[in-house]
Amino acid sequence: MSTATAEAPPQSPYERLGGREVIQAITDRFYDLMDSDPAYADRTIYGSSCLGTIEDLPRLMGTEIIDEVAIALPIKSHYDEIERAVGLLEEQGITAHVLSDLFPQKLARAHSVDFDGMPIVTLGSVPPFSWRTEAKRLMDLFASLILLVISAPLLALTAIAIKLDSPGPVFFVQERVGFNKRRFRMIKFRTMAIDAEARMKELEHLNEKQGTPIFKIKNDPRITRVGRWLRKTSIDELPQLINVLLGDMSIVGPRPLSVRDATRMEEAWQKRRFSVKPGLTCLWQVSGRSNLSFEQWMQLDLEYIDRWSLKLDASILLRTIPAIVLARGAS
Length: 331
Fold this sequence. Notes:
The chain contains 11 helices and 13 strands. It has helices spanning 13-29, 57-63, 79-91, 131-150, 152-165, 200-203, 225-233, 240-246, 259-263, 294-307, 310-325, and strands at 4-7, 33-35, 44-45, 48-53, 68-72, 95-98, 109-115, 118-124, 171-177, 183-189, 250-252, 257-258, 279-281. Strand 3 (44-45) and strand 4 form a beta hairpin. It is elongated and about 90 Å long.
């Protein structure tokens, strides 16, 4: 198979910005090259010989066997040349690969999609929709149903203990910030006195996470006797399995923040944690929880998003069990 490739000249500004790696990758797959600069038309680059300049493309298309053409020219400065080349290739049914360098990408991965017949380039820095994301949702449904059935006796006993320990409802329902900043009502067992929300302002000066959006007191006076035990064992989080069933949460994902905490986040990079569904457990949960700084917490959330896979979810779930049993970092 013979192929032709148009590329930027060696040591060009484009190549210094990262094109060298691109050209090296292309020459590993494509046999012959073409260049936009006549000065390099007779050179051998990375072991591949040049067949001429882009102006020679129509002639070569008429005489050579060409299956695919990769165009690695900077789009911003060579748009007209690329447009002519793509038009010629399209006419003869030859597959063209065009390097998209319109925007610098640090985290996002680009992939092309067909949108009502229009080709568009999609940039995404979160796991794209695929069978893996669908499998994650099916696993969430299956796991939450099974866990709710298995833990039903424990849930009933916990509800009784809460009612006997302090006046007020069994469940605490609070608005939280979820996927893409959508708000939802998160359910958990009540672990504080019924006036806990009203007393927050008077306790702000005791916040151990000063300088961060998070409100945290190690020995919070609002926590009930049963509530302290529920938090230590994470049993207070079990009702969130209902949120998983409803699709507001996932079994594994960044912990959902309250509206108060989410609106106080000032660093833009931290808000990428809202690009996936919040979860019951996460890397933070199995890495120390309250023993970690807010900065470390956010970094772990983003690490989870960048590394996400079904295997990582399974690993976090397995690590969650000993973390709960040993109550590591619980408060």
